[in-house]
Design goal:
The structure is a homodimer. By secondary structure, chain A is an alpha/beta fold. Helices cover about 40% and strands about 25% of the residues of chain A.
Chain lengths: ~240, ~240
């Protein structure tokens, strides 16, 4: 099994530059470690119709969809009603979540707080081993909060729920080349090593390495062979180091 | 005039978590300062068919489209042929750019380097006041490089070319509230102040402020009135400060 994934980041604050998006990098690294291929990220505004359209487009096309943001208590938190709309479901208030909110906020519990107990009808709540807030899942769509510290804290639970696919193997060669100089060496590598994705990444402010070349694939053998073929073809004075060594 | 914009970030390295995306935040802040509304960001892989689809979807829907990445000399730099495909144009080699590359790289000039002189036929080259590499524009699509230092360095030239729209006004109130507590205060504000977008952003690790409320709009009067109405309704002990003061 080799699943694909997409992320939908919801929030005007990202699009106006007020908040630096910080969840995609963590999610991308986690999915890569899980062997799930993140194929698309969309950032959209706090607009229920737009969110619903994006959820529907992504869930039809990818095995797993993760949303980030818009699940808090305020008027600009519109992810739950938007996802409900995408699935053609009503928004309902979950009594167990209401109880948890009342236990937490006590006399201060407001209608705003109780909005956090609202879910698309039929959504599944997935509780982790600790007593943290559950993950919300509707079919292949997982709703995560946008606050980076909380988002990252939910990733282990998401991973436990999704389970891992066959892992990606990722090897790298650090060089002192300039990209134009080694472009020809890289040109045929992917064709000669099917299933290996070769990336070339210039590093402007790295005193040790000017270009990092990466070799990714599901099978270790072809990844190693592609990397070795590159190292053999690379003029030795341009070679810095391999990873893993 | 109030234009909309979208960004297309191209690169497997973002989707595998190898590289933290760093250009959207800078672009979003610049566009916001220019009064141009960034409405959508898409991150897609180094796949020419996918890039062409995304370019066509975005350029039809938004006034300005900015791409980031995939314009270097290596095999995984496929933005130029993909954008050419989106516009149904050929890829051609620009002789003036070839000369610049030869002047820069001298005897070391490789076919890889010369790939950087390739453009969709009919693309416009926009040179800045300094002698830096020109911006590439095809109709409403602007091709920017992915390396963050270079991307950011091109933004002033992009801004000079696009020109500013009427600016957004953005005011903020920092509070010691929790979001659920003030949700009701925020609920009707947008309806009462048409043209003002109100955002509520929890701050987990800020000792001074727990929730920042923002008021954005094209007209200063309604933005100020929405902010003042919120401050008046906010219990004084929850108020920290306003911005601007």
């Amino acid at each position: 099994m080799a699943r694909s994934a997409a992320a939908l980041v919801i929030g005007n604050e990202i699009l106006t530059g007020k908040v630096h998006e910080a969840n995609v990098a963590a999610l991308a690294a986690e999915l890569f470690a899980m062997g799930i291929a993140l194929r698309r990220v969309v950032v959209c505004p706090d607009d229920p119709a737009q969110i619903a359209d994006d959820v529907n487009a992504l869930r039809a096309r990818f095995d797993v969809v993760i949303t980030s943001g818009g699940v808090g208590p305020t008027h600009d938190d519109v992810t739950v009603p938007a996802v409900a709309r995408a699935f053609g479901r009503r928004v309902v208030r979950d009594e167990a979540l209401v109880e948890r909110l009342r236990a937490h906020f006590g006399d201060r519990t407001s209608e705003g707080h109780l909005r956090m107990a609202e879910l698309p009808e039929g959504a599944e709540l997935v509780a982790g081993p600790a007593s943290g807030w559950p993950l919300v899942r509707i079919e292949n769509v997982w709703l995560l909060p946008g606050v980076p510290e909380i988002f990252r804290a939910r990733l282990p639970l998401l991973r436990a729920q999704l389970g891992d696919d066959a892992p990606f193997h990722s090897h790298a060669v650090y060089t002192r080349a300039d990209e134009g100089e080694i472009a020809a060496l890289l040109e045929g590598l992917e064709a000669a090593h099917p299933g290996v994705s070769v990336g070339s990444y210039p590093r402007l402010n790295d005193p040790e390495c000017t270009v990092k070349i990466t070799f990714d694939g599901r099978e270790l053998g072809p990844v190693q062979r592609a990397r070795d073929a590159f190292v053999q073809a690379l003029p030795p004075n341009l070679f810095v180091r391999k990873e893993p060594a």
